[in-house]
Amino acid sequence: MNELKQYGIIPIRYKAIAGFLSSYKYPRNKVIMLEKSGQLIRLKKGLYIVSQDITNQSISKELIANHLYGPSYISLENALSHYGLIPERVYNTCSVTTKRKKSYDTPLGNFNYSSVPEKYFSIGIRQEIIQNSYAYLIASPEKALCDLIITKSGIRFQSIKSIKEFLLDDIRFDFNVIKDWNLDIINECCKHGYKKVELQLLSKYIKHECHI
């Protein structure tokens, strides 16, 4: 069904598909058939994406993550890896939301969402535009690091030394690729997020080590 190609790589709701299939007596049965044939991929109840075999476009997990559970934006290890700040390859797609913590296991991989306060959420978010074709929301480098610190259990700092050990030894953070870091973002995160002591120490460490 090449008509599905018009939807591109944007996740689509069941109602939109059913409207498109209104000429069928039983649209739901047709959707099930399209899913079984691999033309539609079910992300969760009522949300689908068209197979890249139909669209001839690469599927964006980041775009899916924004639509799967929202409001949300890409962050944590995914954003840090995106900016080249950590060397590890990230297999799960990690996001931050104002809603409760949640995970989805889909045919396209696992999507994990960590919860943060509403006032904290809106700080340091940017839009990543891909080839003038689509866009998704992602944390700035500064915000992604703050998100990692405040949402991961067991991450606690009591000194500048412990911050340094975490960044350099635990996540192998690469300061060589930091450009134009904005400490205001970290300071705003400190005002509205969890783990204020840890974020204050982070701000001090980056300011002194990177001469910002």
Structure description:
This protein has 212 residues and is α+β, with helices and mostly antiparallel strands. It has 2 domains: 2-55, no CATH class; 61-209, no CATH class. Helix content is 41%, strand content 20%. It has 10 helices and 9 strands. The chain has helices at residues 14-20, 27-36, 52-55, 61-68, 76-82, 118-121, 141-151, 160-170, 183-192, 196-209, and strands spanning 12-13, 40-44, 47-50, 72-74, 93-97, 102-106, 109-115, 125-130, 134-139. The strands form 3 sheets. Strands 4-5-7-6 form a 4-stranded mixed β-sheet, sandwiched between helices. The chain has a 3-stranded antiparallel β-sheet with strand order 1-3-2. Helix 9 packs antiparallel against helix 10 (196-209). The longest helix is centred in the C-terminal third of the chain and has 14 residues, at 196-209. The model has no long low-confidence stretch (mean pLDDT 91).
